[in-house]
Automatic annotation (TrEMBL):
<dbReference type="InterPro" id="IPR024747">
    <property type="entry name" value="Pyridox_Oxase-rel"/>
</dbReference>
<feature type="region of interest" description="Disordered">
    <location>
        <begin position="195"/>
        <end position="218"/>
    </location>
</feature>
<dbReference type="InterPro" id="IPR012349">
    <property type="entry name" value="Split_barrel_FMN-bd"/>
</dbReference>
<dbReference type="Pfam" id="PF12900">
    <property type="entry name" value="Pyridox_ox_2"/>
</dbReference>
<protein>
    <submittedName>
        <fullName>Pyridoxamine 5'-phosphate oxidase</fullName>
    </submittedName>
</protein>
Amino acid sequence: MTLGNTQRTTVKKAAHKAVKDKEALYSIIDESKLAHVAFSDERGPTVIPMLAWREGDNIYIHGARNSKMLKHLKNGADCCVTFTILDAWVLARSAFHHSAHYRCAMAFGRFEVVEDNAKKAAAFDEFLEQIAPGRSKEARPGNEKELTATELLVMPLAEASVKIGRHGVNDDLADMNLPVWAGILPFRTVAGPLEPTADNGVNKTPDYSSAYPGRWCE
């Protein structure tokens, strides 16, 4: 994997925030699971949010076969896939220096289509296990009709970059004595508690907290 070493992935603006640890790349993708896919077709530049997940050094997206975006991507179009997590607002003494703590991962490449339904089913099971451990054994699996109607695309994480902003308040010396509160406003995404449907027929509530360490809300 090339992490931050190509022309497209070299961080130039605020280069001190660049991270070349692939575990950081993995953790951002795994925590976010919401990608913004950028590409250009006959309509011009487009960015579409998609659910996405990682297995090893590959990321997956899926959707209906009649999706114009998926049709375009599976034909070998170049794209950029971005995952971003907001961790905090940075509140400075001056309006100019207000900022944010964030983690961002970008991957460049081309998607390929997964045609085999058995491989699709295995990939979808992995996705279910990542968001709700044990769920793939509980829910009805996709049948051949459903799997055939769903497009699954995979892209290797061969060219990627990571940028993490977590550097606190950066006020000018001239502003340090201003009577303005300065500091960090943490921003956290939490999961749970589960909310059953009105017609839920199962009395025992499943436990999916292991998928969200430090972020599960009872």
